[in-house]
What does this fold into?
Amino acid sequence: MGISPENLNFIEDSAVLRLFRRLRTGMRIKSRIVLVLDKNHYLLRIQGRNLLMKSNLSFKRKEEIWIEVLKVHPKLKLRLLKIKRTENRPGATNYIV
It folds into this structure.
């Protein structure tokens, strides 16, 4: 059985909650794609914490990306600023699910 968002169970992590309290609209953060789950779902590492991300862009495992926090509550909303590769892509909206 492969990993998919449908068969992942989450436990509320106080460290993740602390991360959300530290995030502010307008912050620019270096992050990394830890795992590609499927075409639109990724495990994104932000400031030492892994979050499930849904995006209309495609990424590769271990890619470093710069993101900007557009909104923290009720759902974290991010915008891609820069991706560490030679290919140029326009910014897009990414959601943490």
